[in-house]
Description:
The protein is mainly β.
Amino acid sequence: MKKIFTSMVFLFVLLSALRAFADAGSITCTIGLYPKASVGCYAYVAYTGDAPAGSSTFVWNFDGGVIIQGSGAGPYYIRWDTAGYKTVSLHVIYGSQECTTSKTIHIVPAPLAFHVTGGGNYPVGGSGVHVGLNGSELNYNYYLYLNGGSASVANKTGDGNPLDFGLITAPGIYTCKAKVDSSSSSCLVNMLDSAVVTVSGYVPTQYICMVTCDTATQRNKIVWNKITAPHLSHFNIYRQTSHEGVYAKIGEVPYASFSTFTDTTANPIIMAQKYEMSVTDSGGNESAKCATHKTVHLEVSPGIQGFNLIWNPYEGFTYYTSRIHRKLNSGSWELVDSIASDQTSYTDPYFISGLMTYYIEVVRYMPCAPSLKSGMYESVVSNSMTSAALGVNEVNASRVLVYPNPAQQKVNVILPSSGFVNAYLEIWSVDGRKYLEQPITQSLVEVNLTTFPSGMYFVKVISKEGVSSGKFIKQ
């Protein structure tokens, strides 16, 4: 009987140990990863398993890869800047349970940039025109796109020689991208130039490259890469009206002119704007309007300490990062932070007496080259916005009374109390420029605005009593 009891105890302990061992290794984990990617591309890395993401620990090793986006369980976008075989490993911990896995990716040199060739005009009912590349590489795939679309209309595998995508009949602008085989579409690299296919009587679509806020004029500037096609007369610029989806023409640019347009009638400080454009040939035929671009509109408000920023994302091209810039008074600009493109608000805890000016920057994946002059415009910037910090004295101080508002020729500034006699009056524009600084000797100050450009201005009254502020619009 004692032997039987001892055997049963041993069996129970053995089963418990086996059950504990099984529990310790019961979670699963695998890594989703393409077998290849090119240097500098954003490779997609994903975790698959049954460990709860919120209560598990995920320890990743990307073998020298740079994390572009992602945290915790992921997914991640990873960039490798050197070629070779890279091993991505993952160790998952969930309570007493653990799982380890790894996967290898082959990083190869980025595709060489060849030139798109061919294109031209053919008559209605004709067989089309050839479009190709002046070179190619082995083990790389080449994709042809029409009018900047997201789906390719033709593809070829590189063989080390020039490529021909065949006879093309659909009119429009053709561009090409390449990637190594067995890699993600995020590794696509733009080839150089484009080919324009036209049909007699057809006008190709002109696409906007970007819309940015011109820092000199504080007005929206539309920029495009000029298409080359016979008998084009001018470009047409359209802006959305007060009705959603309805656009009105706001200007023309001759075909021979530099391919930018400044919208002098819309104020970027007030709201974001949407733009489209088209092109007209010498016969008066107008193309279809291109895809919409929407500007970045920034708002800044002071907190008890620091500043709160909020803006809308840019619409018109894909980007991954937004950069936040600031300057104090009329000082130099500095980069505050770089954040993921899906974030549209930020609190800057920076606190110092004075006026703080901010703007948001969005870097385009390829610079815009108006009139074929490369590298002219690399990023979109928002409107500049200036705000005064709320210090302790400012919270308790009264606001300055400014009238009339809006103003045209002059504005009156009434001090909040007699304690501000012998103070200083400052007037700043929203882009951080000081337009006036003068001592105050009376409770009512009249300011001549005839030399002030139209726009919004901040008024600050500074004395030993504290700081009081107001604002007005010059029409």
